[in-house]
Structures are given as structure tokens and as C-alpha cells.
Amino acid sequence: MSDFVALRPAREDDLAMLERFLEDVEVAAPFEWFGWWDVGRWRRRWAEDGLLSEGRGLLVVERNGERLGFVGWSKVVTSQISYCWRFGIGLLPEARGHGYGTEAQRLLVRYLFAHTQVARIEAVTEMANVPEQRALEKAGLVREGVMRDYAFRNGRWRDAVLFSVLRKDVLIEDAPLPERPAGRH
Q1: Is the pLDDT of residue 175 over 80?
Q2: Where is the N-acetyltransferase domain (predicted)?
Q3: How wide is the angle at C-alpha 140 spanned by C-alphas 4 and 165, nearest 5°?
Q4: Alpha-carbon distances, residue 107 vs 41, 113, 170 (angstroms)
Q5: Which of 8, 34, 50, 104 is most deeply packed, by most CB within 10 A?
């Protein structure tokens, strides 16, 4: 893993940081605030699977032991016998604009290709989220196109941009398999 930022499995004491993305408008704004909803989501998922399961996962982004946010992914079925991963990122406001998101997304792509057999990993971001588009491109993803009226946020439909990276386009170095957080099985 990188000395710049690191990814690690979530611990129970990370839940308060994750909940900030659901409860604090300033943390989720401007592109991830969808109103008040399901503020118990992280704690239920923690109790269910420790935020790592076969079809989805979440890793904490940190630098020198300081929590910066998280990356998460979920399975997208693409045919009867295949799937890809779709991922996203949430960084705390103080962690944005320093290149941490680019590095975290690059690490996540390498991790998912090293430990799963998918051929494709994708990300979607709102059209107006230009910093995230730049971060995805710097992380090695290719812009595929615009999806019109893709997501409803703050009273109107928003266009989104689809990015992807293919296994054949990434040099995969050995990536360690994170251990389960203590107390999980």
C-alpha cells in the first residue's frame, strides 16, 4: 500500500465518522446530500457483516492514522454470468483537494483487481463534480459518457458521468488482503 494514504477495514470506532456523511449537511455537501434518511444504516451493516461482504464493501481511507473518509464498492450484475464493481468515495471536507481521493481510488482499483476476478470496475459522479472527475482520470479511469437525468438531488434531476477501468489496463502489484476487524468472523 501507499505511504501517502492507506485503506483499511473499518473498525467499530469508525462508525461515528461514517455517520457524519448521513447526519451533517456540511460533510455530505455539495454532491452527496440527499436529505435525511436511514441514519442507522452504517450501524446495521456493521452488525450484519462488519462492512465487508461478498457483494459490497467499505474501507476507511487514512493518512498517518488520521481518518480521511471511506471508499465503498458494490456488485453490479452485467449479464446472467458476469458482474463488475461500482465504487464511490466520501472524503471529509478537510481531506478534499489534497490528492488523497485520487490515491485512495487508485489503491481501491488495484485491490479489487488483485482479489476478485472482475474485468471491469466503474464509478459514477455527478456532471458538476469536476474535482471528482479529475481524480478518477488521475486514478486511471476512462470517461465513457454522460448519463442524463441520472440522479435526483436537491429538487432536480442531475446528469452523471460514467468512468471505468479494465483489468487489462492496470498493472496489478501484490496487494495484501485486509484482515477482518477484531471481533468479526
Answers
A1: no
A2: 5-168
A3: 125
A4: 25, 10, 11
A5: 104
